[in-house]
Please model this.
Amino acid sequence: MNLRHKDIQPFHVMDILAKAKTMQEQGIDIIHLEIGEPDFATPEPINKAAISAIEDKQCFYTSSLGLKPLREKIAEYYQQHFDLQTQAENIVITAGASGALLLVLGAILDANDSIMLAAPGYPCNTNFAKFLDINTCSVEVDETTNYQLSADLIKQHWHDGIKAVILASPANPTGTLIYSDKLREIYQWLEQKEATLIVDEIYHQLVYDMPVSTALSVSENIIVINSFSKYYQMTGWRLGWCVVPEKLIATMDKLSQNLFLAASTPAQYGALAAFSPETQEILQQRRETLKQRRDFLLEAIKNLGFKVPVKPQGAFYIYADCSLLTSDSFQFCMDLLQYAHVAITPGIDFGSNKPEKFVRFSYTQDLLVLKEAINRIKKFISKNS
Ligand SMILES: Cc1ncc(COP(=O)(O)O)c(C=O)c1O
Model:
């Protein structure tokens, strides 16, 4: 039987997590640097807003496109910070960025159309495509383009049937950004080809060395994906959004009604407090903490023999080349867990671009914990060299 899920692989990091769990049950202290979510709890103003909505019995379905005041707040955010014309009508509230990606792919692509994406990249995009019978054109990227697709790479790999290109900035697993001039070149070329540009900005705001920007400043025809998961530290609430041009709103509404009915109502009420000055102050402090962690971890792993060809400017990941230490990054991750009790993610989870040479570190732990992880990795490497 040819079931459409047959080519969808579970994350390989799950093997590592399962092993870590068994070890923890045996009382072993594991340091988790494999997980893609911050260690910070959801900011208290968001919790309070959600709790009061529940106490007020506000838990009915919202409109499929989302709670109007939340859509207004998000639109205001783009208007005030980036001087854009974004309207509440352009915002679709979704079940995380995951829900947004699924709806957007369903809205703009047909079975047997193709989508271009970068490798390494976020693995679920390929799997969403497979699930919708969309073909993927995976293009290998490296330090020469900041681990991002470029207009030249897109032109080189272009073929008939490609209807959309998806980028992420900051990207998972590399933490690299795509700059506006490069994005504009890509957008202009795709416009000629009548193809859509989707930019996943789930790590938007988690940028450390430069001002935050959005692809919407290049064109409001670009589809932007975002989420409350990462910067707002609401991973488990399952809430995200996308910004779409007017012509797509009715389709997004129809798909959202059928696939999800609506995003979580208490989560949407909670998120109304996400843009308050009180919450923003908490989040900005946490961003500073993440920056300090990045600065520490980046230097520390380089001193251990990992190579990081491009400084990650955002998100909370470092994608490190471990080829001086091992020829098999998956086995390296397994051994590191077994003997040093540190969990990291093998490159195989991010596509087929030399995965055996790379591992991903998430700096989603306190600085002291990161320091302990480095001590453990150092001992492990010196024993094995
Ligand atoms: C690049 C990227 N996009 C989308 C997602 C999905 O996030 P969520 O559905 O929690 O918003 C993730 C999660 O790690 C991600 O890294």
Summary: The chain has two domains: 13-41+278-384, 45-274. The CA atoms of residues 46 and 270 lie 5 Å apart. The two ends are 48 Å apart (CA to CA).
